[in-house]
Design brief:
There is one protein chain. By secondary structure, the protein is mainly α. The protein has ten helices and no strands. The chain is elongated and about 70 Å long. The mean pLDDT is 85.
Length: 162
């Protein structure tokens, strides 16, 4: 986590473009932001706070590991997954450089890359850029308000003793 994300861009670009041949696809834009070190660390720390007594009780009741995961761990992990979804979506949605790097056609460019086209050599269309930035912020606002219950629950889960 101490290594800046910019250091990993070149190996990630070579992996996505040359090895997996995913140039100019949505998968190339989305996939690298899902499995990051920060996301793995966040979920590891959250999962360590879950009570293990429920997992042991399920094993005593002869539940399979898959059923323990789907019926016990995942429902308890909803707040952590919601926080992870918000953080990942906001980081991916606001990212400029990675989508600019892996997309070649204007059809695949994200809204942030498109907003950069409002800058010209002699002038800048500030009105169009501000309108585009407002439209770009709407999905993040909708996502936050739809997952706000889980987000607040995930923040306050460690604050209650007892």
């Amino acid at each position: 986590m101490m290594i800046p994300a910019q250091v990993t861009l070149i190996p990630l670009y070579v992996l996505v473009i040359n090895v997996f041949d995913m140039a100019n696809t949505y998968t190339a834009i989305i996939l690298p932001s899902v499995a990051t070190v920060g996301n793995i660390f966040l979920m590891k720390q959250y999962m360590s706070t879950l009570p293990t007594s429920l997992i042991h009780a399920a094993r005593i009741d002869a539940c399979s590991e898959f059923r323990i995961f789907t019926h016990i761990i995942l429902p308890m992990a909803k707040p952590g997954l919601a926080v992870l979804a918000i953080f990942t979506f906001v980081a991916s949605w606001n990212d400029f450089f990675w989508p600019f790097l892996v997309t070649q056609s204007s059809d695949m460019q994200t809204i942030q890359v498109g907003l950069a086209s409002f800058r010209f050599a002699e002038s800048t269309d500030y009105g169009g850029m501000m309108a585009g930035a407002t439209v770009a912020a709407l999905p993040m606002i909708v996502l936050f308000f739809s997952l706000q219950k889980y987000f607040l629950q995930g923040i306050t889960i460690g604050a209650v003793k007892g």
